[in-house]
Sequence to fold (909 residues):
Amino acid sequence: MPRAHGAPWVRTRLRTAPWSTAAFGVLVLVTAFLAAVLPRAVEAYGTDGLRAAVATAAPASTVLELKTPQPVFGRPGESRAAEVGPRALAEVDGRVRALLPAPLEASPAESAYGVRTGKSLAALDASLPRPDGLPPRFTLLAQSGVAAHAGVRQGRLPTAGTVTEDTRTVEGAVTAETARTLRLRAGSTLTLAGFPDRPLTVRITGVLDPRHPRGTYWSAEPVLRAPALNGNGGRPPQFYWEAAVLLAPGAAPALLGGQAEPEKYWRMAPATGRLTGADTAALVEAVASVEDGPGLVRMRGAAGPTAQLSTALEEVVGAHEQTRDAIAPVVAVAAFGIAAVAFVVLVMSSGLAAARRDAEFALLRARGGSLGGIAGRLLAESAVPALPAGACGLLLAVLAVDGARPLPSLLGAGAVTLFACAALPVRAAVAHRRPRAHRERDDVALARPGGRRTVAELTLLVLTVGAVVALRRRGTGEVGDPLVSVAPVLVGLAAALVLVRLYPPPLRWAARPAGRLRGAVGFLALARAGRSPAAVATLPLLALLTALTTAAFGGSVLAGVADARDRAALLRTGADARIDSTDGSPLPAGLARAVRDVEGVRQVTAVGFGLASERASGEARSLRVVGVDPESYAGLARRTGLGGFAAGRLDGGGGVLGAVASPGVAERLGRAPRRIATDSGPVRVRITAVRPRTPAVPDGEFLLVDAAGLKDFRGPSTLLVAGGGLDAKALRAAVRGAGSGLSAALRTEERAALSDSPLQTGAGRIYVWAVAASAGYALLALVLGMLRTAPERAALLAGLRTLGLTARQGRHLLALEALPLALLAAGGGTAVGWVTVRLLAPGVDLDGLALAGAAGGEVPVRAVLRPDGWSLALPAAGAVLLAGAAALAQAWWAGRRTPITHLRAGDTR
Fold:
């Protein structure tokens, strides 16, 4: 018995066009993947950046130190001793760690607790080194976990028997660095003042090697790992050694009997394993709570009413947050760009399907089909491939980037899937809202925009102007303002709409003279280009201009970042490599020769430094004098671009040395000959040139002179090395072989230090992939536009072949037909990209993306956004080449088939 209903709609349609269905599913999968992976990637590099910021910061800045004074006097000695005993301190440590508010957690491996002297104790032993005659001072720490954090190089770990407040002999241990500096060993004794009846004797029982010397356990206390020279604040200052001695945890009661203000402490190193980028604000709030808030009240309940917690962790997290906020708007520009182009491509894919089935929908409407019924069936037809594809894209994003919140990815993939499902039904419903007998022509050369389109375009232009003005005024530093980040995309869309308005007249003007030419190819190509549907010209142009603008803006951003990092690295070293003596003394005699022998070295320039006063009899010498070899140094300055000058500027005569000075020095000394007092005696100088910086002093004031004109010149203390592909290992080996007290810095290493931050690396990677994806979508838009009219072009080519058109002429015809749109997109994209960068450059701050990894202070350079020629030319050229290649490929494919195949009776193509 036959079924009452016909074949199922969805199954029939999907079987009819399996390849287009598969291509639609792949498009949805890729788009959903990008929409889901982008927020995960942003959160992932934020997580890595936060963890790296906390993990790489100085332990003294990130440690949470809870301190409380010694037990009050007047209580029994046994009670006071028990309160500072290991058991009591361990109990408090467990309670305090449990009270840390989330997401703040302590790392047990690097945390410690104990009792320390609040004031250091002077050593009375005459055998200890005294740099300026002052005795060294020691901080005593009865700290937990010594055995787990150090190996014993000599002797044994200290122990403690029965120790009370009256005990005046205890055992201690020092690190190998402390032992070497202060000439201590196992068996040495320290006699420390600061006790009322008699000094405290500390017998050194062991010399220790820290297992993780840079960790919080050893570095939270400044002098625990290595001693340091401290000044007494006098004039002139006198220096003494400050060091630390580790006691057994049970020896803490001995510290209560002195005047060193002992204190109990619990040092908690923050754990970074569970921190995520979304925890940044909560982490700052948690630190504020335990420093001076409800968290501190709870900790006082565990450690005592006078406990205080101190840390600089909020400053570390705040610096990370500032860098992240500076990078986020720049990355948002790329995200908006790829979103806009993907939107246009999805619209074009639905438009291609709707155009191919236009007659089918018109017939259904003519036979009484309702808009709701047709739209519902098309929605089901689109959902069958789109829903699994969107789910697969989400799954791939989760597998690609782990450890991020699922909700943003779910929303992104869901939005793409929903739009992909609804695009075709909405497009068909709008096009066939009224039944019609035939399809009206919508040639691009004859199309007349309606009032609604004009209002929409004017609205977009107003938004574009507002976004550009806002970006130029406020810059990208204001987080959470999408209008600012979408400005480049809006500029591209507005330019595309303007070009679409201007596109038809030139086509009509060009077709008239082409019709009077002898050949028919040019006229036919222009006529075909003018008769293509308006949507075929508008949507690909929108996608191409948006993608080219985004690519130009993104490429200019990346180029500006790279230039700023290169410049900053050069300003740190002054050349490809820089070798200095750490104390300013002259370099060893054979060092320059050894450096010249290193592979890749082209030039070695020796530089000496000295101080001078502006008056021949002046006392304070604050003027930095740089002695150089004129020929070698002038060549280096020209090659590096750091204040280049002619070597003759340093020539002298009549007892006066020529000099090149910084602007500040030139203003103070003037251009007339001036006598100054240098380390090697008084000299007369005359400033012949002013330069803002120079390789020897990239940042600061200077006075360059010929070293040969300085009497009793001490010799060079710096070598500036120029060369490409320097062998870093061989260079450092040559420096080490010349002696101690030398440091070497390479520009490549400084450059790498500016770009190894997880925030910068992650943001740069996202930007590159976003620009590449938007370019891929734009090229896909161009292909979709050509596919929409491919049957008509194939039929035209077949008909012309029956009239005598050769295969070569057919290729020329299709290539010339695609050329106007491709040239318009390429030329317009290049011009709009250049204008966009110039318009938005004053408001875009690239310093956070380029120089956030600058360690060791500020760098005297700013990242400037300027148009990058390659970023403008390459995408435009690629668009033209792809359009031509697609046209030639279609001509080749059509030529393989006989004209009868394209000209079947009743074929409406």
